[in-house]
Amino acid sequence: MMLKKYTRLFCFTIALILVCCSSQKALGKTLPRTTYAKARKIKLSENRVLAGTNNAIFSVDANRRIVWEFSEFPPPLFDFAFIPTTDLIYVTTADNTMYILNAKTGKSLYSNGRNGSGAYGKVKPYLNDECLITDNLWGYRDRLNDPNIENGVTAWQGLTPLWSRHIPANSSLVIRGKRIFVVVKQRHKTRIIEIHPPRSREHQRRS
């Protein structure tokens, strides 16, 4: 009986060690120089950099040592942005999926994978603590043969979506201070449209 008890305790301890080692398998390793050179990089702090590749996002120190790795998403990585005031990273990937990560640990605090023929797209910081994420509805335009179906953009604050707006297809977002513009390139001209966020009490307070 005593031997069986210690055997179970030993097996539990070994399993716990294996889980911990697996979850931190990248910790302390060095990101290869070529991978780092090709990655899209965002500065997190004086000695930390966020490096994004098609298959993973890494937080690395000044010597390219990996602090954490996030690769639990369907590749490729589309876009990502860091909001310093909230210490959050917003990520869009293939398979119509988005994530919000804790910048210190790389832990996913929120994820959303949607069914349908759309895709999460570009990610842009906005104001001090918000992030704009676009929706590309190209699949619906193609499947329904309707070029008039618009894309969308949603403003996030922390883990909460604040507001959404329709934007023209094949357009790009440009942010100038508190103002949000949509640039639509057409065959013979370029249109610029301003998006007006809702004038909530919180937005009024910060404007």
What characteristics describe this protein?
alpha+beta, 4-stranded antiparallel beta sheet, 20% helix, 46% strand, disordered N terminus
Count of helix runs: 4
What separation lies between the terminal Cα atoms? 70 Å
Order of helices and strands: HHEEEEEEEEEEHEEEEEH
Question: Beta-strand percentage?
Answer: over 45%
**Low-confidence runs (pLDDT<50, min 5 residues)?**
1-24, 203-207
Short description:
By secondary structure, the protein is α+β, with helices and mostly antiparallel strands. The chain is 20% helix and 46% strand.
Structure characterization notes:
The chain has 207 residues and is α+β, with helices and mostly antiparallel strands. It is 20% helix and 46% strand. The strands form 4 sheets. A 4-stranded antiparallel sheet has the order 1-2-3-4. Strands 5-6-7-8 form a 4-stranded antiparallel sheet, with no helix packed on it. Strands 9-10-11-12 form a 4-stranded antiparallel sheet, with no helix packed on it. It is globular, with a radius of gyration of 21 Å. The protein starts with a helix and ends with a helix.
Chain-wise SSE layout:
Layout lengths: L1 H22 L9 H6 L1 E6 L2 E5 L4 E5 L4 E5 L6 E7 L4 E6 L3 E6 L5 E6 L5 E8 L3 E7 L1 H7 L6 E7 L2 E8 L3 E6 L2 E7 L4 E6 L5 H6 L1
Antiparallel strand pairs: 1-2, 2-3, 3-4, 5-6, 6-7, 7-8, 9-10, 10-11, 11-12, 13-14, 14-15
